[in-house]
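Residues pack. One example:


***
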Amino acid sequence: MPEFQTWIAAHQQRFEEVLRGLLPSADLAPQRLHAAMRYSVLDGGKRVRPLLAFAAGELVGADIARVNYAAAAVEMIHAYSLVHDDMPCMDDDVLRRGKPTCHVEYDEATALLVGDALQSLAFQMLSDVPLTADPVRQLKMVKLLAVASGSRGMAGGQAFDLASVGKQLNLSELEFMHIHKTGALIRAAILLGAYCGDALSDAQIDKLDHYGKCVGLAFQVVDDVLDAEADTATLGKTAGKDAGNDKPTYVTLLGAVQAKKMAAELHGDALESLAEFGDRARRLRELADFIVMRKY
């Protein structure tokens, strides 16, 4: 595990510099917008989605320079979603990644534009340079991220989330919401990393996608448990926010004990789906452990 922690730290540090180089400079007009974009993306977060992309890239022997762009695209979509999610018209939160949310540090109009600009920049990342020898596969990557972040993915899951406030959802409804809201982008990160390297069979892609589905749901289950049990300082965001907003969670539906059991089952299912890849999937296995056992 110490060696894996070294791998995480090295990738996080290196990728931070990648993001600094890909984001527009704060000196470039419009300066306030670009400064707010950098504020919202840099110096915060676990970078779970990029780490999953890099791990999948290692599985297929991908050039890390290519995976950088795929990982940056996913992280920019994720960052934009957090900026919009924190706004008064959504969750109205004031703390994210241990610092004031974008609309608090700047203003609501700027935060709205930050999200818009990061979303378009994400797709620029997928088209700026060749990410694979096959242009048809690269076009498939653009579509994959578009679907994962749109109404049939993350944005649709958020819409379902907003419509569920004050309601009692059953387990299948809650899973449907989080497969889209949280899981879609996690699955996309894994597949985008995989598409940057040697081609896999359709069956192998399905195995990776199933792994992504399991770790995506496990991520949300653990998030719900931490929201209920950890404090604000540990999380870097407002603890207990979902319960305070009367949102359905795995903890409110199942209780903390059963929610933790569900996360463990999803963890086991995720690891089983990687069996055929052998040691090539080592980092993906370790990331599944990290996602389920994290404390923040």
Observations:
- Residues 2-293 form a domain with the Farnesyl Diphosphate Synthase fold (CATH 1.10.600.10).
